[in-house]
Amino acid sequence: MGHVVNPGPGRPRLEQRRRPGGTPRAEILDAAAELFTNRGYANTSTRRIADAVGIRQASLYHHFGTKDDILDALLEKTIAEPLALAAQLIAEPGDPAPKLYALALYDTRQLCANRWNLGSLYLLPELRTERFESFRVRRDELRKLYAVVSRQVIADTRPAANGTDTLNGVEYLPFRLVETVINMRSDDGVSPEHAPALIPEAAVRVLGWTGDSLRLRETAEALLDRAISPVQPPA
Question: Nearest to residue 209, comparing CAs of 166, 158, 170?
Fold first, then answer.
């Protein structure tokens, strides 16, 4: 791909489009995701991101004011849809076990489907700063919604354990199980194909659920299909 000899004002792209995504913003996010996850956040400059896209650094700033803004947008991609889906599923009537399975299934799929292992960014020390408080709050909100459904499952399967003094944090295990996908990807370097088949079932069984796996999955898939204001599954 040859460089444009004299792009001139108003022509920020230096090379032919090289990134997936229909917009410059999507290309920037893809390049940043690759660099942040492979080279590290601190070791990646906005100039390097712009070079990876094939645009001028000044053009990058038309879409994102700072590198932190790019990271924030990437983090938001991992949390927005599961958070919306969790709220929808909780509002649905019926058995909580398929709801928890459906949420874990969707969340596992999207963590696997992302081209880059964006969940690994959760461990960045920069996320502890005030700049990323909003993301931390939203992630904690998702964790709590998982816990809401988990407590409902426990109430159905182990009524005697349905007290804050006896749960001992077990209601948070499904959320933690889903996030093991992040470490699976880090260890293997590829998306674990088996995760969507294993983790959602493990999420309900760890709470004491003992029903039929096939029926549970079918019910959960149907829940995802008819979710209120449907959240589109990842490609």
Answer: 158
Read off the pLDDT of residues 30-85 as tens digits, 9 standing for 90 and up: 999 999 999 999 999 999 999 999 999 999 999 999 999 999 999 998 999 999 99
pLDDT confidence of 191, banded at 50, 70, 90? Answer: confident
Contact predicate 90/100, CB 8 Å: no
Q: Considering Cα of 64, then 84, then 33, then 234, what sign does the dihedral take?
A: negative
- The CATH architecture one would assign to domain 68-225 is Orthogonal Bundle (1.10)
DSSP 13: B
Fold type of domain 24-65:
Arc Repressor Mutant, subunit A (1.10.10)
More reliable by pLDDT, 161 or 116: 116
Q: Are the C-beta atoms of residues 88 and 149 closer than 8 Å to each other?
A: no
Which H/E stretch holds residue 213? Answer: helix 213-225
Domain ranges of the chain: 24-65, 68-225
Q: Cβ distance 157 to 209 under 8 Å?
A: yes
Using CA atoms, how far residue 27 sits from 3, 12, 37, 53, 200, in Å, is 18, 14, 16, 6, 32
Averaged pLDDT of the chain: 87
Number of helices (H), then strands (E), belonging to the chain: the values are 10, 0
